[in-house]
């Protein structure tokens, strides 16, 4: 077993892509494939399952990934301790987020203050980002409405409301706010189930005893905006996700004001890393630890 083989496997497991792993490591894709294959041969086990152009981790792969995350997480802490000063003259930070808007504000501020630190932004839906934190795939994440977990530290960032997105000229377009009850049987567009937008909306609809009529389910905000602009249905976005697209209008939803609590979330031991502590300090609000 070689260090380079474990690093190659860990990069593939993090990204679930040989090409992306090669980019992360700064090597060629064949080099990554050879390192992982050599590790599998040496221990006579399958770590990566190939499904055409897609890959996934086997049971042994999942178990090894948990260990390599601990290993390389400790390595990053050691490098931070030995090679960096309070000024953070070097380092690396993997920052996860379930939405780009608040995260990019922090990225811009962090880059301005610590330009020598390499910062990698990893975007995913709410479930993917939550799992990335727990599995140490990322060092810290900006996440909306995260569950309580005693292993984690939390830092409030912002509170947002949900808005109804309608085509310009729609009967709701000039309203100051809209109630979910008013949507009635008008066609709507949902986000994928694991997104914070959809989970928040479904929880409120269930509480109110309402059912909407979805005609389309989409996996991104950008697709939502385009579909609404084409008058396929009405959509749902959070306040910070509003765009300047002249074809659509966003109106606050009466029952979903303040429904999204955006927070920095991280495993408590990660707080010792200077690159992580610097981001927490930069966010600039009193920290809240899970009880």
Automatic annotation (TrEMBL):
Family: Belongs to the LysR transcriptional regulatory family.
GO molecular function: DNA-binding transcription factor activity; transcription cis-regulatory region binding
Organism: Dongia mobilis
Name of the protein this chain belongs to: Aminoethylphosphonate catabolism LysR family transcriptional regulator
Pfam families, alphabetized: HTH_1 (PF00126), LysR_substrate (PF03466)
InterPro entries to which the protein is assigned, alphabetical: LysR_HTH_N, LysR_subst-bd, WH-like_DNA-bd_sf, WH_DNA-bd_sf
The HTH lysR-type domain, residue ranges: 1-58
Classification via CDD domains: PBP2_LTTR_substrate
Record key words, sorted: DNA-binding, Transcription, Transcription regulation
């Amino acid at each position: 077993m070689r260090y380079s083989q474990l690093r190659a496997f860990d990069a593939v497991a993090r990204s679930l892509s040989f090409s992306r792993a090669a980019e992360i490591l700064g090597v060629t894709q064949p080099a990554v494939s050879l390192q992982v294959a050599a590790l599998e041969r040496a221990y006579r086990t399958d770590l990566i399952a190939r499904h055409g152009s897609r890959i996934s981790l086997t049971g042994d792969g999942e178990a090894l990934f948990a260990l390599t995350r601990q290993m390389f997480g400790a390595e990053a802490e050691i490098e931070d301790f030995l090679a960096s000063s309070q000024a953070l003259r070097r380092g690396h930070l993997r920052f996860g987020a379930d939405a780009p808007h608040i995260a990019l504000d922090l990225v811009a501020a962090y880059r301005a203050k610590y330009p020598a630190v390499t910062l990698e932004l990893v975007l995913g839906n709410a479930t993917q980002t939550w799992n990335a934190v727990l599995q140490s795939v990322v060092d810290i994440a900006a996440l909306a409405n995260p569950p309580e977990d005693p292993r984690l530290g939390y830092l409030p960032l912002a509170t947002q409301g949900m808005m109804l997105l309608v085509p310009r000229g729609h009967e709701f377009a000039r309203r100051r706010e809209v109630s979910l009850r008013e949507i009635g049987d008008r066609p709507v567009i949902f986000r994928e189930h694991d997104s914070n937008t959809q989970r928040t909306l479904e929880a409120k609809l269930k509480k109110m005893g309402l059912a909407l009529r979805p005609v389309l389910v989409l996996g991104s905000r950008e697709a939502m905006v385009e579909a609404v602009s084409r008058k396929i249905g009405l959509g749902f976005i959070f306040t910070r996700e509003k765009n300047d697209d002249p074809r659509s209008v966003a109106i606050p939803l009466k029952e979903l004001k303040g429904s999204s609590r955006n927070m920095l979330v991280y495993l408590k031991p990660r707080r010792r890393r200077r690159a992580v502590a610097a981001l927490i300090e930069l966010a600039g609000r009193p920290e809240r630890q899970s009880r």
